[in-house]
Amino acid sequence: MKKNISMKDIAQRLGVSTALVSYVLNGQLKDRINKDTAQKIKSLAEELGYRPNHVAKSLKINKTLTIGLILADISNPFSASLARIIEDEAKRHEYTVIFGSADESADKSEDLIRTLMSRRVDGFILAAPEGSEELLSALKKQDIPFVLIDRYFPELQVNTVTINNFQASAEATNHLLEQGFSEIGMLNLKADLLHLAERSRGYKAALIQAGQKDEGKNLKEVDEKNMIEEVHQAINELLNQPEPIQAIFFGNNNLAIEGLIHIRSLNIRIPEDLAIVCFDESNAYNLFYCPVTYIRQPLAKLGQAAVKLLIESIGNQERSTNNITLEAELIIQKSSQKYI
Amino acid sequence: MKKNISMKDIAQRLGVSTALVSYVLNGQLKDRINKDTAQKIKSLAEELGYRPNHVAKSLKINKTLTIGLILADISNPFSASLARIIEDEAKRHEYTVIFGSADESADKSEDLIRTLMSRRVDGFILAAPEGSEELLSALKKQDIPFVLIDRYFPELQVNTVTINNFQASAEATNHLLEQGFSEIGMLNLKADLLHLAERSRGYKAALIQAGQKDEGKNLKEVDEKNMIEEVHQAINELLNQPEPIQAIFFGNNNLAIEGLIHIRSLNIRIPEDLAIVCFDESNAYNLFYCPVTYIRQPLAKLGQAAVKLLIESIGNQERSTNNITLEAELIIQKSSQKYI
DNA sequence: AAGTTTAGTTTAAACGGTTAAACAATTAAT
DNA sequence: ATTAATTGTTTAACCGTTTAAACTAAACTT
User: Fold this and answer.
1) Protein-covered nucleotides on strand D (Cβ within 7 A)
2) Which element (helix H / strand E) includes B35?
3) Is residue B140 exposed (0-12), middle (13-18) or buried (19+ Cβ within 10 Å)?
4) Minimal CA–CA distance to A132: which of A115, A143, A148?
5) Which of A60, A105, A119 to mutate to test the interface with B (most CBs of B within 10 A)?
6) Span A204-219, mean pLDDT?
7) Own/partner pairs, A315-324, CB within 8 angstroms, 24+ separation
8) Coil, helix or strand for B103?
9) Of A206, A238, B27, B217, which sits with the fewest C-beta atoms within 10 Å of its C-beta?
10) A329-331 and A293-296: which strand pairing?
């Protein structure tokens, strides 16, 4: 490995001090420095292929211009899209991103946070898993800037950027009701995460508002660990009960895809026999035999807002907290329109 | 922001030198250090919540234990899966990953490499875009350790981990031939990237071996920029020509999905009217009306091999290069079997 | 008793930058 | 001519570690 060339090397060759090299290469003290000297320094830096050592700079200025991004799993398309948006937005602010996948585990989150704190990231963007409340409190107590994205915990007063899951679900359910479907089922994940609970709550609220009682009877919550079987079973139950459902609302991406696979195998006509709405989008929907109505989360805004908020938070001493809620959009396709 | 506590803080409180603190916390000089003192240091470190400053350490030891990962686009499932595998494998070796999306642009790649070099990553894993040969030569000349993944350039003697695209394509084509399909079309991307060219070459080689002449007549290369229209048009042409194709082989994921969407809209029976094989897997295939035969790339092995090779390369002075080729696997489903 | 080991710890320089303060040499002001 | 301001540059400390080398005091040797 060739030696990296440093300011010292440049300084020595030109017989000046490293301070001067630093001032010149950083464009500081412009009005004081001799133009010839400045030019010489710049030329030599260029010629030698000088690359500033960001590590040394970070140590000195106590900032790394790095964001720690902790998501559930970077290989999941939702996380990956968000990561890309955050990467781009961070770059616009001269920040770099280090990422980690926590697999919805509080322990792994803690591990990752420790590692990234050692590496002195300036702040975190976190999709916090269930059970990470204490961890987040601890972070807050240590005055580490961070922003929760997608997930949140109402008892914690911290920065968040989330979408209005309640409203989106209610809107989707209302849409189905307006289309004339009254028996509407919902599949959701069984989890304590509030953003998921909000989806169920929005669904139920819409049913109640439409005058339905027993609004939970067609809501099935499945266990992530046993997702495939439970989705199939839940759909079978909802379709074969005394009052079968006329429409189904999937609480997320993965449930939707598994559900659609099963529905296809049942040879059900969409939307004649069953209407469908899904939370989240997926290019997989395009291969389904009927264009699928879905809720589109404003991922770009979500990611951009998180970066913006984090960077503000890094810049400010006073740790005020900010909660941003974004609205999702219902993309209506054939799968939810009986009378098209 | 609370002050981070350092070795100095611990040393001062206990009236010892920072050197001693360093030795104790790093478990060095174990046989020399007084056990009581060691215990005191460890306890105080724990009590104060000491976190080593990796930035300072990196500066001193001239290693960051960080890998720069540059892929086409982290939001693309192929990249994202690879990123996850590399993340995990890197973590097993105590490495952290900084990633960047280069969007198949040599300029962006260069930018990213510069940034990450400033941050003194120990090495790179790169999915190098078209036209980055010079850049890679320059990297090599500077003795920066790196490994190319997925893509490669035969004229460059550098570390690579790739799959055997030629063999995989030939195998897929042979499979179709064995099933009794003789008129086989292929859709591939129009690009100079060798790994794509190899896919076309494998396809043609299989046809030639089967005694076909004019082996390129059913090969359509589409432009990425105008992908959707060109895929539709290409399929139409292949199906409506004097000797229509009986089977089609998609050169990658995105082509396959777009192709399948179009094929569905044409109400073609699979595999009776048209057999299908795709390069790459996708959970989207599951929503198609016929289980799709596809080539599965050994992503886990690919990522793991890349990390392993990179870390070896970082450790060695002598810059020997290593080229690892992995075989893909053909997953045969109904879409390519006429006589099931 | 003098010399040699051993144990336990400290000293000090280094990594590659940043930056407030000091300095010397001009030039301008009074 | 003296003082003050300006210009151009250097000095030196610091960021938080690591680590070779030095040091001291006690414990063995012979």
Assistant:
1) 7-12, 14-21
2) helix B35-48
3) middle
4) A148
5) A119
6) 95
7) A317/B1, A319/A140, A319/A143, A319/A145, A321/A157, A321/A158, A321/A159, A322/A159, A322/A160, A323/A152, A323/A159, A323/A160, A323/A162, A324/A160, A324/A161, A324/A162
8) coil
9) B27
10) antiparallel
Q: Supply the pLDDT for residue B339.
A: 61
Q: Is the pLDDT of residue B340 over 60?
A: no
B119: nearest CA in chain A?
A: A54
CB contact under 8 A, A73 and B84: yes
From A266, A273, A269, A230, select the one nearest A250 (Cα to Cα): A230
On strand C, nucleotides with any atom < 7 Å from a protein CB are 7-12, 14-21
Over residues A209-216, mean pLDDT: 94
* pLDDT classification of A339: cutoffs 50, 70, 90: low
Q: Which tokens sit at B303?
A: 């990522």
Q: Predicted confidence band at A71 (pLDDT cuts at 50, 70, 90)?
A: very high
Residue of B nearest to A262 (CA): B287
pLDDT for B318 equals: 74
Q: Is the pLDDT of residue A168 over 80?
A: yes
Residue B137 pLDDT > 90: yes
Counting one residue from A and one from B, how many pairs have CB atoms under 8 Å apart?
A: 144
Nearest-by-Cβ selection for B257 from A59, A83, A283:
A283
The whole-chain average pLDDT of chain B stands at 95
Both tokens of residue B224? 């990425």
Sort out which chain A residues have CB atoms less than 8 A from B99's CB and list them. Answer: 83, 87, 97, 99
Q: Which two tokens stand for residue A333?
A: 């396709």
Q: How far is the CA of A52 from the C1' of C15 (A)?
A: 14
DSSP-derived secondary structure for B11-24 = HHHHT--HHHHHHH
Give the distance, in angstroms, between residue A36 CA and nucleotide D1 C1'. Answer: 34
Does pLDDT of A119 surpass 90?
yes
Tokens representing B302 are 């690919």
- pLDDT at A21 (0 to 100): 97
